[in-house]
Design brief:
Rossmann fold; about 290 residues; eight-stranded mixed beta sheet; single chain; SDR family NAD(P)-dependent oxidoreductase; about 40% helix; globular; 2 domains; Sc_DH/Rdtase_CS; binds nicotinamide-adenine-dinucleotide; KR_dom; NAD(P)-bd_dom_sf
C-alpha cells in the first residue's frame, strides 16, 4: 500500500479556495505539508474576513501554512498578482489548481452578453491568466502540477449552461494542449470533473445526498493529481460521491475511403458511429496509416 503522500515544502495556489471544493483542496494539501495560497473574491463577511482570509486563518489555526490573496481571478492582473503573492511568501510555485467558478444559467435564446462574458472570464480567462503567470516559474524549476476544473456540463452538455459549458470545454482544450507543451519541462496538466454539494450546487441536489456528495470526497483525487508521484498528464478525471473515474474523448476506428462521396458517408454511417473499435488520440496531428 502507498505510504502517505505528502506535499512538504511544495507551494500550491488554489483559486476559489475560500469555499466549496477549493476550500477542501486547500485544507487537504495544507494538512499534508503544502504552503497554500488561497485566492478568492475580495468580499468581507460580518467578521471582516474575506473567503480566502477565513480559509487561510483556518489552516494556520490548525498549524498549517497558508496565505490569502483577495481578488477576482477574472481580472487580467489577478494571475500575475497571485503568483507574485506565492513567490514573495514562499519563494516558488509547484502546484496550480484553477477552481474558481460561477454560474449564470439561462436558456441560450435568453442569455445576455454579460452572462456569457462573466462566466468565460472567471473560468476560462481566469485559468489561462493564472497558468500563464505561473508557467515561467514552473518551467524554470522544471516542475509543475496544474489542475484545471472542467465539468459534466462542458463534457456532455447541460440545458441552460451554454456559457458555462463553453468555458468548461475550453478548459479541456487548454489542459490537453498545456500537457503537450509542459511535458518537456516536467509540468503535468490534468483536468478534474468534480461533483459535490457546494454553494454552487447544494440547492439543486436532494438534501439526503449532501453528505455523500461532500467536497471532501473530491479532494483526494485533486491532491493525487498535484503530487510529485503522479505521472498522468492530459487526462480528465471524474470524482463525485466517492466514485473516481477516467473521462475519455475517443475516436472510432471509422470508415476509410479516400474518394468518399456524400452518399458513401450516408451508406457507411453505421461504420463511422460504431464504437466496437476505438482509440484515444493523444494529440491533434494523427497522420493516416499506410
Ligand atoms: N459542485 C459541483 O458539483 C461542480 C460540478 C462541476 C464543476 N464544478 C466546478 O468546481 C469549481 C468549484 O465549484 P464549487 O462547487 O466549489 O462552487 P462554490 O460556489 O462553492 O465555490 C466557488 C468558489 O469560487 C469563488 N469565486 C467565484 N468567482 C471568483 C472569482 N472571480 N475569483 C476568485 N474566486 C471566485 C467563490 O467565491 C467560491 O468560494 C468550479 O469551477 C465549478 O464550476 C463544480
Amino acid at each position: 500500500m502507498t505510504t502517505q503522500l505528502r506535499f512538504d515544502d511544495r507551494v500550491a495556489i488554489i483559486t476559489g479556495g475560500g469555499g466549496g471544493l477549493g476550500r477542501s483542496y486547500a485544507r487537504l494539501l495544507a494538512s499534508r505539508g503544502a504552503h497554500v495560497v488561497v485566492n478568492d473574491i475580495d468580499r468581507k463577511d460580518d467578521n471582516g474576513l474575506t473567503p480566502a482570509g477565513a480559509v487561510a486563518a483556518e489552516i494556520t489555526g490548525q498549524g498549517g501554512s497558508a496565505i490569502a490573496h483577495d481578488g477576482s481571478i477574472a481580472e487580467p492582473s489577478a494571475g500575475p498578482a497571485v503568483v507574485r503573492t506565492a513567490l514573495e511568501a514562499f519563494g516558488r510555485v509547484d502546484i496550480v489548481v484553477s477552481n474558481a467558478g460561477i454560474v449564470r444559467d439561462r436558456s441560450f435564446a435568453k442569455m445576455s452578453d454579460e452572462e456569457i462574458g462573466e462566466v468565460l472570464d472567471v473560468h476560462l480567462h481566469g485559468a489561462i491568466g493564472l497558468t500563464r503567470a505561473a508557467w515561467g516559474a514552473m518551467r524554470e524549476r522544471q516542475y509543475g502540477r496544474v489542475v484545471l476544473t472542467t465539468s459534466v456540463a462542458g463534457l456532455w452538455g447541460n440545458r441552460g449552461q451554454a456559457n458555462y459549458a463553453s468555458a468548461k470545454a475550453g478548459l479541456v482544450g487548454l489542459g490537453r494542449t498545456l500537457a503537450i507543451e509542459g511535458a518537456k519541462y516536467g509540468i503535468l496538466v490534468n483536468l478534474i470533473s468534480p461533483g459535490a454539494a457546494t454553494g454552487m450546487t447544494a440547492a439543486l441536489l436532494p438534501e439526503h445526498l449532501h453528505e455523500r456528495m461532500s467536497p471532501e470526497h473530491v479532494a483526494p483525487m485533486v491532491a493525487y493529481l498535484c503530487h510529485e508521484s503522479c505521472s498522468l498528464t492530459g487526462e480528465i478525471l471524474f470524482a463525485a460521491a466517492g466514485r473516481y473515474a477516467r473521462d475519455l474523448i475517443i475516436e472510432t476506428a471509422g470508415y476509410e475511403n479516400n474518394a468518399a462521396t456524400v452518399e458513401d458517408i450516408a451508406d457507411h454511417l453505421a461504420d463511422i458511429m460504431d464504437t466496437t473499435s476505438w482509440s484515444v488520440p493523444s494529440q491533434a496531428v494523427q497522420l493516416p496509416s499506410d
